[in-house]
Amino acid sequence: MSVRRRATTEELLGRARGGERGALARLISTVERGGEPAREVGRLVYPLAGGATTVGITGAPGAGKSTLTGALVGIVRALGEVAVLAIDPSSPFTGGAILGDRVRMQDHFLDGGVFIRSMATRGQLGGLSLAAPSAVRVLDAVGFPWVVLETVGVGQVEVEVAGAADTTVVVVNPGWGDAVQANKAGLMEIADIFVINKADRKGVESTRRDLEQMLDLSSPSDWSPPILATVASTGEGVEELWAEVRRHREYLEGSGELARRRSARLDDELHRIVVETLHERAEALWRSSELSGLRAQLDAREVDPWQAAEQILGRLSED
Amino acid sequence: MSVRRRATTEELLGRARGGERGALARLISTVERGGEPAREVGRLVYPLAGGATTVGITGAPGAGKSTLTGALVGIVRALGEVAVLAIDPSSPFTGGAILGDRVRMQDHFLDGGVFIRSMATRGQLGGLSLAAPSAVRVLDAVGFPWVVLETVGVGQVEVEVAGAADTTVVVVNPGWGDAVQANKAGLMEIADIFVINKADRKGVESTRRDLEQMLDLSSPSDWSPPILATVASTGEGVEELWAEVRRHREYLEGSGELARRRSARLDDELHRIVVETLHERAEALWRSSELSGLRAQLDAREVDPWQAAEQILGRLSED
């Protein structure tokens, strides 16, 4: 009888680098689940990554991000293979709405040079802020020269996730509310390029003025985020968007800003790894029988919760 | 020149126990801010607490929780001093909407036997789940026989915060959506008593049926949550609510459930203290100059984020 051995992470990575999409999908699932296996993937792909150009597309639900991403992929595809990572922090499961959106990208579904993958949060809060940059790094390490990171929603998690890309495009629609919402959510701070999508509707100019006013209030920088108008469904303005993405890339590389951003991101990532590991250790200790005596003492009021915490923290340090 | 010495926490607690409301307010502010000073207050009040009857009132914004709390306080006040702790997890600052709501409790504002305090989250997520039980314990330790904990909103934090009370009243309004929302948010699991407030509107019976159906689906217990109808603005049904709160209290004490709940709460609290302390240690290390060398190595790609994390975790253990 032969026993089928489970592929090791190294083997999976080798196969993914050889172009095997199933192996790549498994690596990303591992990253998505978090914990030590995700960290192992992280360690393995780290030295292989750094070559990809990453573009983040973010904005409120319904802004037309998927259609815009699809149109952008149509252009970028001529230059090389493209990976699209679609992230929905509000959904606890992969699927549902975001897979519905994927239908709009069906032009690319049968193209082997375009890899499309949805990710959603599994387990603890903040999991995606750790998983998203790791997944981008996997795609980078596997050899995709272009990675598009699409995030749904405008909250703190989205802002953190969007930070995993070198260039961030914030998509709003004509109408006053969107721009203000983007500002409140902190998207103004991370936007390198603004897109007013669905620009065939009225209100484009007032939205543009709102964005300009908010930009005037933000701290001055060498890069002034351009404001573009697109109609993603017809492709209008998408070439211009791509030209701006390239221009921003040149700015990033020429000014040293790319190195600064990547350094800050590495620092963030390190921070998240430390916090995640500490949590895991505390959780493991929590579930262990080791603590039952301490719990009995706490119940009997022989120790207070702060004394009990001291003892637990002492045990955590012994590991 | 005389230097005015800052009151120690012990002194503040002594004055608060002597009836000084300003000292009490300062203790609660300390708890609200979190960190080591909050833990000091926790340690000091812990042996003094345990005598108060705590009632939590929770439900969606606009359900009439403040009016109901005000009406309930009117009844309880005849039995002794009452403290009301109003918590809004969605608001980053004390004030605003929740203070507006407090106006509805103005009947009690000038009554020295009623202490009213709003709390909001400051700093990190989850801060309120730690601060709320501590604040309740301060009020208990200071001698309030009755503490009412009002939480605004229906999310995970509200469910956790509501858990700081011995008896939890979930307030819904006539209409299908509320009951379903309460179910989705996990409020069904923590409800000891249901109140359909604004019962002068139509839809009371269908809401009652919805709640009954959801209760039928939940795991059986010795206590079956009653469903009451109130019109808090006129006081209708509030005496009955109070009678059910007393009946639930008798059940809790007679069945041993009170001890079980307090034990589970103590366990939760211990868990949160451990996690908070770990976070603080990691943050302090983060800000220290100790890490600058490691960061330079990370930037130069001489170490990867996982190796850097190992080193940091090693240093945290040395504390």
Features:
7-stranded parallel beta sheet, 2 domains, 319 residues, 54% helix, alpha/beta, homodimer
What does this structure look like?
The structure is a homodimer of 319-residue chains. With 319 residues, chain A is of the alpha/beta class. Chain A has helices at residues 9-17, 21-33, 35-45, 65-76, 97-102, 127-142, 156-162, 176-184, 187-190, 204-217, 238-255, 257-287, 292-299, 305-318; strands at 53-59, 82-88, 114-120, 146-152, 167-172, 193-196, 227-229. In chain A, strands 3-2-4-1-5-6-7 form a 7-stranded parallel β-sheet, with helices on both faces. The longest helix of chain A has 31 residues, at 257-287. Chain A is globular. In chain A, 45% of the residues are buried. Chain A binds chain B through residues 39, 42-43, 46-47, 125, 263, 266-267, 269-271, 273-275, 277-279, 282, 286, 295, 298-299, 304-306, 308-309, 312-313, 316-319, and chain B through 39, 42-43, 46-47, 125, 263, 266-267, 269-271, 273-275, 277-279, 282, 286, 295, 298-299, 301, 304-306, 308-309, 312-313, 316-319.
